[in-house]
Amino acid sequence: MTSLSPAKNDSAFKWLVTVMAAGHFALVVSTGRVRWEHVAADLLLVVLAWAGAGPRRFLRGAFPLWLTGMILDSQPLWLGLRGTIHTGDLWNLEKLLFPAPGGTHWPEWWSRHPNTPLDLLCGWAYAAYLYEVFLVALWFFFKKDARFEQLCWAFFVVNAIGVVTYVIYPAAPPWYVLKYGPGLADLSAPPSPAGTARFDAFFGIHYFANFYAKNPNVFGAMPSLHAAYPLMMVLVLWHKGLAWRVGTILFALLVAFSAVYLTHHYVLDVLAGSIAAVAAFVVVRAVFARRAVEAPGMAPMTLPSGGNTRA
């Protein structure tokens, strides 16, 4: 079988993107979930597809980011498939494995001992963690680094792992158990900014309140994608050398601590998120390494080994 010519392949990609954007928009309209973000994202997708070779080159790499947004936003459509939601069992397991002073665990302990410096530091980390991914992706794109597309696909894969796990193992976050107790899950419970509300209150803003108001799944705490994203940046940027490794590791540790301090996640959630990040990185790296054999100009992501410092 002969492959499509570059021109035909390019045309097929344009129409594929257009059909997917139109289909997604029809879905959110028909399910009564349409917001201005849907209009903007789907319209931007089509514009980039038809705007020329340069924007289309960006879109080919960044397309997994749109797919990620789509699967996260569409969670309400399959939440009915979830099994029993884990509340008290996870709470008790956390106390057993990671006990804190007073016979409790660290999310509950920190909820009783907050302080303003940590509120501000952890709030900043919780606001910045997602922008780190996008800034690194843009940096790779403008450098014409093949890691741009690889990072975008790894981001999609780690989120797909998260969403599938939310269905298989739906779990209440610590703030939920603190507020509603460890019994049968209250499916009507609204999302909460939890400890990040103190950050909002300090500055008199509603950043986290607005952000979490759009959360479609209160019971998606395991794994912690907050912990997964920064760890993935450690892996993706490892080849840049010691300074980058130290900086990204420190930020990843700060976000992981923030997830527990702000009562959004258990230590168990953080560990699960870390495993998901490594799994997504390894899978995507393997796929692109295979592609690199067929297309020698492609630079695969490198595993943290210190031996490869290719820029």
From TrEMBL:
<keyword id="KW-0472">Membrane</keyword>
<dbReference type="GO" id="GO:0016020">
    <property type="term" value="C:membrane"/>
</dbReference>
<feature type="transmembrane region" description="Helical">
    <location>
        <begin position="151"/>
        <end position="169"/>
    </location>
</feature>
<keyword id="KW-1133">Transmembrane helix</keyword>
<feature type="transmembrane region" description="Helical">
    <location>
        <begin position="218"/>
        <end position="239"/>
    </location>
</feature>
<protein>
    <submittedName>
        <fullName>PAP2 family protein</fullName>
    </submittedName>
</protein>
<feature type="transmembrane region" description="Helical">
    <location>
        <begin position="270"/>
        <end position="288"/>
    </location>
</feature>
<feature type="domain" description="Inositolphosphotransferase Aur1/Ipt1">
    <location>
        <begin position="107"/>
        <end position="282"/>
    </location>
</feature>
<dbReference type="InterPro" id="IPR036938">
    <property type="entry name" value="PAP2/HPO_sf"/>
</dbReference>
<keyword id="KW-0812">Transmembrane</keyword>
<dbReference type="InterPro" id="IPR052185">
    <property type="entry name" value="IPC_Synthase-Related"/>
</dbReference>
<feature type="transmembrane region" description="Helical">
    <location>
        <begin position="123"/>
        <end position="142"/>
    </location>
</feature>
<dbReference type="InterPro" id="IPR026841">
    <property type="entry name" value="Aur1/Ipt1"/>
</dbReference>
<feature type="transmembrane region" description="Helical">
    <location>
        <begin position="12"/>
        <end position="32"/>
    </location>
</feature>
<feature type="transmembrane region" description="Helical">
    <location>
        <begin position="246"/>
        <end position="264"/>
    </location>
</feature>
<dbReference type="Pfam" id="PF14378">
    <property type="entry name" value="PAP2_3"/>
</dbReference>
